[in-house]
Design a protein that fits this description.
The protein has 218 residues and is of the alpha/beta class. It has 8 helices and 14 strands. The two termini are 21 Å apart.
Length: 218
């Protein structure tokens, strides 16, 4: 899952990006309002974490522009502004949640996962499809009730498939979800990764529609 982090403080942006990547997210970092406003593939983001105090603009204005442009992914405000007026204004502008700095990473991660559940219409953390179960909080995966050991990229790919069971996913869409813009991307990477995952969950579980993409069968 890809996230856009909008944070102008260099050290905080670096540390938070590293922690999020350690939690198996692909993270893009924007340090100004202008950079975030013109991000090239905003529609590919699973969520946005937005600071309000940016050097060249106001985060709330950016938030309102995104919502007016029908950017519908969860947007979580992460800011040092902690008054109730700031919270009300942020939520009324279209934010899904409001977290005040300094915040523990565990709380931020829990709030992100809560937004993903709401966005997907789920109450439980665990995602299921047939005999596969995945817990995005603990990163545990079960196949027919037995624990399944996956590499980080195999886990990310399965997580993507389980969020969209029965949907045809192109190689490009898979690359966009698994890798941030700074990572070199090659289409054959997807083919190799799908092959590795098939060997672990069953070759017939993921079908190929030649020239179009891959589908996790329900």
């Amino acid at each position: 899952m890809r996230l856009l982090l909008v944070e102008d403080e260099p050290e905080l942006g670096r540390r938070l990006s590293e922690r999020l990547r350690g939690a198996d997210f692909a993270v893009d970092l924007a340090t100004t309002a202008d950079e975030a406003e013109h991000w090239p593939d905003l529609d590919k983001m699973a969520a946005i974490i937005l600071d309000l105090g940016l050097p060249d603009g106001e985060g709330l204005d950016l938030l309102r522009q995104w919502r007016a442009a029908r950017v519908d992914c969860p947007i979580l405000i992460l800011t040092a502004r902690g008054s109730w007026q700031d919270k009300v204004e942020g939520l009324n502008a279209g934010a899904d949640d409001f977290v005040v700095k300094p915040a523990r990473f565990e709380e931020l991660l829990a709030r992100l996962n809560a937004q993903f559940r709401r966005h997907a219409g789920r109450r439980d953390n665990v995602i299921e499809a047939g005999y596969l179960r995945l817990d995005p909080l603990t990163h545990e995966v079960w196949l027919d009730g037995a624990p399944l050991v996956l590499s980080r990229q195999e886990y990310r790919l399965l997580h993507l498939f389980l969020r969209r069971p029965g949907q045809l996913l192109s190689q490009g869409a898979i690359l966009e979800d698994l890798y941030d813009l700074q990572t070199e991307r090659e289409l054959n990477t997807v083919e190799v990764l799908v092959g590795r995952l098939r060997r672990k969950i069953g070759k017939d579980r993921i079908t190929t529609q030649r020239g179009l993409g891959y589908r996790l069968e329900r």
